[in-house]
Amino acid sequence: MTKSNPREIAVKIISEINDDQAYSNISLQEHFSQYAYLTSLDKAFITEIVNGTIRHMKHIDYIINQFSTTKTNKMKPLILSILRSGVYQILFMSKVPSSAACNEAVKIAKKRGLGGLSGFVNGVLRNIARNINHISYPDRNKNPIEYLCIKYSYPQWLVKYWLEYYPIDFVEALCNASNNAPKITIRCNSLRTNKESLMEILSKENIEVSQGAFLPEALHISQTSAISELASFNQGLFQVQDESSMLVGHILDPKPGEKIFDVCAAPGGKATHCGELMNNQGQIFARDIHEHKLNLIKNSAERLGIDIITTELHDATVLDQEKMSQMDRVMIDAPCSGLGIIRKKPDIKWKKSNKDLKDLVDIQRKILSVCSQYVKPGGILVYSTCTISEQENLENIHWFIQNFDFDLDPVDPYIPEFLHCDSSKKGYIQLFPNVHNSDGFFIARLKRKR
């Protein structure tokens, strides 16, 4: 195999995301598997260029269009990917010399059979590098929507949508925070170790580790690009999971010996967390509509030493009469727009639309309607999403309690005191990247009336 350098691989991935609608996280992993010679530093460099370029793409295109006579919508797709990646390095990667970004972009253009345009690539990038401190932006006071869209690289529909619900200063902080890559968070597996021992083991594996922010079982790690290769991971000592997602398990509050239903369970983070909280005693039914995703749950449960999870292939919008009123607790981690995890998957903001939100609300309400029937009288239903969207979150909950035999149940007893707020006393909480330094997450706890 002819070796490709990291910048060239990054350009390939950027092209796949923009031209072939590939998902950034999947495309990155596929290329890392394909190019086995890549070092950890190479992988980190590629990830930074890819995610950063996609994260700031509207901002980057705005700058390119100020310095190029040929506008981005008229460029060859590959040339545009090369330029975007080069501008990202010049603008946002302070340790990369502008000359290196320009020279490598020219080499990639020539190597990919576009030598005739290498002078154009060189001219545009060097012009931007020379004038980096003289770029003009929309006026925040006169054109606040355009300013937020360009400065923080968000589609106009999303900025307008958030501004309907939140003040401009909050939306600006939200956009900014969602552009910052998060630390990796893991959940200590209490069935096999404790947090102190795990921290010591990870340190010996040359992993930087620190305490989580919300929960005792949470740890932040860094300095690793291949978690699945760690001995501690393969021994089932931990699971990758954001703290906002861990809060779902605590708010559900499953008890040993109970019957728990996770109706949209893949990839299994919440189901396996419940298994640990239940001390591996009871029954957890974990469902999904994709067989290959059920295998992810099975593999995680086996690795973590949890044997109370039964996986089942089933569509959550279709009623299973055999399980009606059988479950102590039901968890609906609903399919959603994912606007709370843009930090991790920056391509989400370019792949969603306002129509997607409306379509998702229909699905979410159908799942709520069906799966609420599995809860025993007096039992608990927890509804969660990884999005920041009132339509998908609070508006759904208001609709649900108006039409079904459920009341909101306070979540304060199940979450850290510093997360207590007016809404948590009522029975729900919305986490924001700019407020909580976590994924954007919504969690509501509901109790079925007797």
Descriptive report:
The protein contains 20 helices and 12 strands. The strands form 2 sheets. Strands 5, 6, 7, 8, 9, 10, 11 and 12 form an 8-stranded mixed β-sheet that branches. The protein has a 4-stranded antiparallel β-sheet with strand order 2-3-1-4, with helices on one face. The chain folds into 4 domains: 6-134, NusB-like (N-utilizing Substance Protein B Homolog, Chain A, Orthogonal Bundle), CATH 1.10.940; 144-178, no CATH class; 184-240, Alpha-Beta Plaits (2-Layer Sandwich); 243-448, Vaccinia Virus protein VP39 (Rossmann fold), CATH 3.40.50.150. With 450 residues, the protein is of the alpha/beta class. Helix 1 runs parallel beside helix 3. It starts with 5 loop residues before the first helix and ends with a strand.
For the record, the count of structural domains works out to: 4
Count every beta strand, where a strand is a DSSP E run of 2 or more residues: 12
> What is the CATH homology-level superfamily of the largest domain?
Vaccinia Virus protein VP39
Radius of gyration: 24 Å
| Oligomeric nature of the chains | single chain
List unreliable stretches of 5+ residues. none
What percent strand? Answer: 5-15%
Distance between the termini: 66 Å
Helical content (DSSP H or I, runs of 4+): 40-55%
**Major β-sheet, in short?**
8 strands, mixed
Class by alpha and beta content: alpha/beta
Q: Mind telling me the CATH class of the largest domain?
A: Alpha Beta
- The backbone outline, from C-alpha atoms, is globular
CATH topology call of the largest domain: Rossmann fold
Tally of separate helices: 20
CATH architecture of the largest domain: 3-Layer(aba) Sandwich
Mean pLDDT: 94
